[in-house]
Amino acid sequence: MKKIIINLSTLMATCFAINFSYADNHGESNEGSFVIPEAEVEATLLQGLANLAEGRTVSDIVVRHVDVGEEYMGVSVVQRSKVEITETETGIAHVDLDEIYYIVSGEGTMVTGGEFVDPTETNSNLLGPMLRGEIKDGVLQRVKVGDIAIIPKGMPHGWHEIDTDTISYIIFRGDPNEVMQIKNKSE
Fold first, then answer.
1. Nearest 10 degrees: CA dihedral of 43, 46, 48, 51?
2. 77-104 pLDDT, tens per residue?
3. Residues 6+ apart with CB under 8 A from 2
């Protein structure tokens, strides 16, 4: 897990040109950069698995959502239970959020792109406006530990199959319109 956290820090610095520095209060200040300690990431991963053990099929926990200048950046830990292949591909698209997934455990096949067939508009308290429905002509892409998937706002995406009992990934969400649930310190 230590290697994943190191790779994760490198990814964040590269993708978002954020200079990480360790703050005594672990980023709970509005000054300087935000650091999410390994212990907090581990605790959130464990909480997500506990959520699945209680019968949920998805756990999406916001770790931080911070102002990075021209937009907000959200960091969440997501876990999903096993998904069997179905005849129809379904998924969602975030109207306002770009997403980057970093797979930390498990593996599966994502469906991305294509078009929705008669989508439904919804509004999530956690993630703002979304479209959801059947995906036509999406691309299937296999992901495993260490892989990164970049999903632009408005792109249909979902899981075609999750082979393992669970899959865990960290999502970085660019949020220019501040639609995500705000969380700027550990609780």
1. -120
2. 999 999 999 999 999 999 999 999 999 9
3. 38
Domain assignment present for residue 183? The answer is no
**Distant-in-sequence, close-in-space partners of 134: CB < 8 Å, separation ≥ 6:** 88, 89, 90, 116, 117, 118
The one-letter code for the residue type at 37 is: P
The string of pLDDT tens digits covering residues 28-43 is 445 667 889 999 999 9
Residue 132 belongs to a domain: yes
Torsion angle (degrees, nearest 10) of CA 101, 44, 73, 9: -70
If you write DSSP's letter for every residue of 49-116 in order, what string do you get?
Answer: HHHHHTT-SEEEEEEEEEE-SSSEEEEEEEEEEEE---SS-EEEEESS-EEEEEEEE--EEEEESSEE
Predicted TM-score (pTM) of this structure: 0.81
Tell me whether residue 31 is in a domain: yes
| CATH code, domain with 80 | 2.60.120.10
**127 Cβ contact partners less than 8 Å away, ≥ 6 residues apart:** 60, 94, 97, 173, 179, 180, 181
Q: How far is CA 179 from CA 81, 103, 124, 150, 168, in A?
A: 26, 24, 9, 19, 23
> What domain range is 14 assigned to?
2-175
- What's the total number of domains in the chain? 1
Position 97 in a domain = yes
